[in-house]
Structure formats: structure tokens, C-alpha cells
Amino acid sequence: MSRFQGANALKRKRPGSASDALTDHDQAVLDVIRSKQDMGIYQRDIKREIHIKNGINLPDPAITKCLKSLVTKNLIKEVKNIQSRGKKHFISVDFEPSNEITGGAFYNEGSLDTEMIAQLRRLCWNHINGLQIATLEAVTEYINRTKVPKVQLSKQETAELIGALILDNEVMEVKSSGTGEFASIPVGKVCYKCISKRAHGAEPKVGAFASIPCGVCPRISYCTPDGIISPKTCVYYNKWLDF
């Protein structure tokens, strides 16, 4: 028989350090949240998970009380989920939330950081222009050395920035021939060169695609008409339409 005998089961205190003075219900909630690792879990889903794992139906007020207790004890934390801003999402302090939750380097406190993205685009263009020919790895390494992004950019995130520049006809994708200006780059490797000409360090020309929020959105590849990320639910796109 489970040690849980229902929502009104005796709440025994547990000795220990990190989980000192936890009740059985506190521990059940904590175990569920920890099991989700860096993905965390919505508050509304905790009840179902506890029922599956322990066979009890914990009332919503009891779950809320447990969450407050665990946050106070610094065992869990609430994080902002970019896909569902209005829902409470919790993760164990043992983990950092995944990029799927936070949005990655392009988001700040759950919101798309358009100013930083514009700055990163300028850095990409300037570095490619300075090198004349640049690989994805070279641009990524350079941007991370600048410390402009609060977290290290992955190659995929840098590729998204360069992709926006390509759509605005500021940068073009080419393949190395291994000769001439490509002498230091392996044959066939994808690299980038600038199309537009401007003074090094000047503001990038704003292309047609960049004039709308989609032009700087690093998640545009995930945007679909009926998806979690879509023009219908995008507050930035709706604000642009109302402008």
C-alpha cells in the first residue's frame, strides 16, 4: 500500500538538510518537479502526475501550499515559459530551464529582446564584413567573446541571426572553393560574405523583412498559423499591425 492514504494523509516531517521539515505532500510535489529536470512542469499538471505516481488526489489548494513552501525553502523556483506566459511553471533549483522554456539567448525575462537581437545582427555583419569571408563557427566564437549575449550563443542561434541578414540581402551564403579568398576554409564548407557595402561599424540597412518583428525573431522557423508560436498569438506582430 502506498504511504499516501489520500489527500488527508498524515503529513510527517522528514529529517535532512536540503529537504528539512518537508511533509509527505511537499516531498511528492518536489519529486514530480525534479523528475521533469530542465523542462519543469506547469502547476496544473502536478496534480495529475502525483495521482499517477502515488495514487492520491491532492486538492489544488494543497498543491499551492506545497509550492509556496518549496519556493520558500529554495528547493524549486517559478520560471517564465515563453509558450504559455499566463501559466505558472516550476522547476527544481537543481536545474536551469531549457531554451524551450526560456527562449534561449534571445529572450530576457520571458520577452523577446529585440534591442539585443539588433545589436547581435550588427556584430554578425561587422565581423563577416571585416573577415570578408566567415564561417559560422568564427562568427559564433566572436560574438561569444564580446559578452553581449547574457548566455553563450550556440551555432544554431548564430545561424538564425545570419539567416535574418540573408533574408534582408545583407549577407549571402557561399561554399568554399578552397582557393583565393577561401584558401583557409575547407572545400565545400558553407560560409558567409557581405553583399551590402557600408562603413565598418555603421548601422545596418533596415530591409523589408527586418521592418516587421518577424525579421528579428529567432523563432520564426517554429512559427505556424495554428502552432504554439503563431502570428495570431504574437503580441509583437499584433502591435506592429496596430502601429
Automatic annotation (TrEMBL):
Keyword annotations: DNA-directed RNA polymerase, Nucleus, Transcription
Keyword Transcription belongs to the record: yes
What is this protein called in UniProt? Answer: RNA polymerase Rpc34
* Family stated for the protein in its record: Belongs to the eukaryotic RPC34/RPC39 RNA polymerase subunit family.
This protein's major location comes to: nucleus
Superkingdom of origin organism: Eukaryota
BP terms from Gene Ontology: transcription by RNA polymerase III
Stretch list, region Disordered: 1-21
Q: Which Pfam families match?
A: RNA_pol_Rpc34 (PF05158)
Q: Where does the protein end up?
A: Nucleus
Asked whether the keyword Transcription is assigned, the reply is yes
Please give the GO cellular component terms listed in this UniProt entry: RNA polymerase III complex
